Amino acid sequence: MKIVKVLKPFGPYTVGDVAGFDDAYAEKLIGQKRVEPCGEKTDKAKPGGKTPPPPAA
Known about the structure:
Helices cover 16% and strands 21% of the residues. It is of the alpha+beta class. The protein has a three-stranded antiparallel beta sheet. The longest helix has 9 residues, at 23-31.
């Protein structure tokens, strides 16, 4: 899991939000410049956390 800071709004997230996503999805969002890495990588998701579906192209 990677912690990221949102740079462009998507789904339920707005600019400045901090969220955690699985590594592959976080890397995809980083590549799209929608988010930037923030904080440290974690091994586990926090209970109750959800990963939203990928944004529509």
